[in-house]
Amino acid sequence: MEFSSKFLENAVYEVSQLPGIGKRTALRLVLHLLKQPERQTEELTTALTNLRTQISYCNNCHNISDTEICEICANPKRNKSIICIVEDIRDVMAIESTSQYQGLYHVLGGKISPMEGVGPQDLNISSLVQKLKAGGIEELIFALSSTMEGDTTNFYIYKQLEGIEIKTSTIARGISVGDELEYADEVTLGRSILNRVPFENSIKAN
Amino acid sequence: MEFSSKFLENAVYEVSQLPGIGKRTALRLVLHLLKQPERQTEELTTALTNLRTQISYCNNCHNISDTEICEICANPKRNKSIICIVEDIRDVMAIESTSQYQGLYHVLGGKISPMEGVGPQDLNISSLVQKLKAGGIEELIFALSSTMEGDTTNFYIYKQLEGIEIKTSTIARGISVGDELEYADEVTLGRSILNRVPFENSIKAN
């Protein structure tokens, strides 16, 4: 692509650095901004700058938060003896939207992934182990993605728990609600049979 | 979606104002920026601010340009007696990439679209008519999209040409190179038969 303006070329280049956005989409977005009032571009850049420079993380669970302790950790109604380990804030938001969980979270900030150069020291694992050693936690729920990286991370953390007495669990893997059995993959279907639950439980959940 | 941070919520909102980007994609993009070095967000916001505040348009053809007269209009090798009317800079870039056109352009900045509240006065039409009245232009090529808005705009401009002696043409509509006849729509196929060209022309073009 040849551009008639360095400013345009530069803006398109920077926008196309975002994941999943190619040069053509970037050009479309940038031309859209040009057609809108200047105010819109200002608001966008101010919001991004504020986010990047003023963002902070909860001292306790490492979730994104504007206060030192996030709302979830500060809520006296939450059960502080259960911790759910998740990858990032999107998983916290997803679990919160179910209204089924009343414990606290611990946000790792990623998964162990040698391919992407992410090791255990890049994640919030040591603070988790410290928290568990300090006592008062009864159950640890592993809620990472069901991928090789997720399983590796689960296993690494599990190994760190040696000598700490704590109940551990993982979220259930199974057939999605509303899905047809014949289209499910064998691994998922196999797990959902192995980990079957009493029929009364499924009635209660509805 | 409930956010744990006002900064995050604000950034996601502003990014999701861009066309074709929903809240989920916006959250993904914003979290990506948070994981990258602060420098990347700075470069992005600076590029967008520079574009929006320092962009200028060619005085002659209204194309985006860093100079008062764009490179195409300033090029002495271009044929200044032919003008090709296009909608926006993307069309200029598309035609330039074919290397088949040596004339100048006139960028309208949009199409007449009552549905979106765009009338003739919002487009660069009066400057085009002035340019044509001043003389020296032999041919005007209409190269707008083949949609109802494009046709309306073409017709509006054509009406403005009354009293001006000038040759007008539109780019050819027909079957795409490499396309199979059986999958072409009837209107396109019909036009490509009506506007058939001497066989020797198609040999020369290859």
TrEMBL record, chains A, B:
Residue spans, zinc finger C4-type: 58-73
Entry keyword annotation includes DNA damage: yes
Signal peptide per UniProt: none
Keyword Metal-binding belongs to the record: yes
Ranges where the Toprim domain occurs: 81-176
Function: May play a role in DNA repair. It seems to be involved in an RecBC-independent recombinational process of DNA repair. It may act with RecF and RecO.
Xref: PANTHER family: RECOMBINATION PROTEIN RECR (PTHR30446)
Family, similarity comment: Belongs to the RecR family.
Name of the protein this chain belongs to: Recombination protein RecR
Species the sequence originates in: Croceivirga thetidis
Gene (UniProt): recR
